[in-house]
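Summary for the lay section of the report: proteins are chains of building blocks that fold into shapes. Here we show the chain for Citrate lyase alpha chain and then a coded description of the shape we predicted for it.
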Amino acid sequence: MKNRVGREIPDDILKDKNYKAFETTEIGHPDKQRVAPIVTVTNGDNKVVNSIKEIVEKLVKDGMTISFHHHLREGDQIFNDVMQAIIDLGIKDLTLAPSSLTNVMNDMVVKAIKSGTITNITSSGMRGSLGDAVSHGLLKNPVVFRSHGNRARAIEEGKIKIDVAFLGVPNSDEVGNANGMEGDAAFGSLGYALMDAQYARRVVLLTDNLVPYPNTPASIKQTQVDYVVKVAKVGDPDRIGSGATRFTKDPKELKIAQMVNEVITHSPYFKDGFSFQTGSGGAALAVTRYLRQAMLDNKIKASFALGGITKPTVDLLEEGLVNKIMDVQDFDKGAADSMKNNRKQQEIDASWYADPDNKAAMVDQLDVVILSALEIDTKFNVNVMTGSDGVIRGAIGGHQDAATAKLTIISAPLVRGRIATVVPDVTTIVTPGDSIDVLVTEVGIAINPKRHDLLETLSNIPGVPVYTIEELQQKAQQIVGKPKALEFTDKTVALIEYRDGSLIDVVKQVKD
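The coded shape description reads as follows.
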């Protein structure tokens, strides 16, 4: 059948996996029963285990679901060490359910798939060798991609049942009190791992920094933890992030950032007490700096900043331009250090951040958000999952979640190299066009015609040309030409859920 955004969803997937097709972005707040965490009893104070192999032998069995977090990013060492131990022990048919998968994990996951250790994956995204392998049909069953808020919803409602959570932390005492703020591998907020710590049947902390009891402040508490494993190294802090993330010098990115700033400051939402979320890329960081100057010039302060946090956002907090930071993940050392030292930077879990079935999520309070795109089409649908070749090379992350803001801006170049960003139809729909308000490119902006109010307020900004999105698509096509249509087989390799758990799109296997 075709869903609301016109995508063909195979009937067998709807039936066999008990899915509903995507219908609307207006989710509301349904009355749903949450699954209470399973309480299991360990050996009291005797929680320390000597090796990863020992804990894997003790807990992991065929057919289980295991999870990890991705706060360590490219510096993560825990994932590969645990997965190697699982492969060596010959364990099979596991479901891998991490908060996301980073490049440093890719080759190990491919190895685990080939050995039969992993037969199912649910994650926010994947890239590199893993994305390529899955796109060409290596995995037995389709990957399920969920946004950060949707993953929290699925865990809380029992759709994802985690048997064992392996959580790398930069410190812990022997009973399992831990945080992300102290130690050589400190990374700040533990926002995504907090869901696993609360709901997994067994919780294993892995740390290279055992500290005296009681360890406070405790983001993960001893009441949630079954075992603590002392390891040689949790991660490489130089690859987790250090210092402020790079401020772009690329003229195209700077031009886009300037236009984004003009759109924000000319919108009705730029007023004292507004809230916002930006990303961690070069253009997004430039937006933060332009926005800072606009806030100073207009004597405007923000009530809060949300999402993955960077040093430029922390600078706004320290200057008094932002009252609070709500922090689910830190993208650099400056942001991580700030959470340790500034009580106005609040650690939040993924549920508080963006679960659509919550009594209230932080994203519901957002005024402005700036998001990126691999592709955006003439219906304003956005693809952040598959490349121009149809291969999986991205992540939903918080894209769908934050797109519920009052003003959702997509910041993207018109073309990348010889590949159009603005296209007639995106390869994969991740965020529906109903959620997108304005596209900003280096040549000008396009306003979603459904936003009549914004058409009035944003159409006469000096130095910001306004086009229809069809006109921008034609401009892109004139530069790069019309690409050859992609070819896929009939096999479904991935399912793209919308944040309420409905199916918004599927990804087919790339034809060799």
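Put simply, here is one thing we learned. The longest helix spans residues 282-298.
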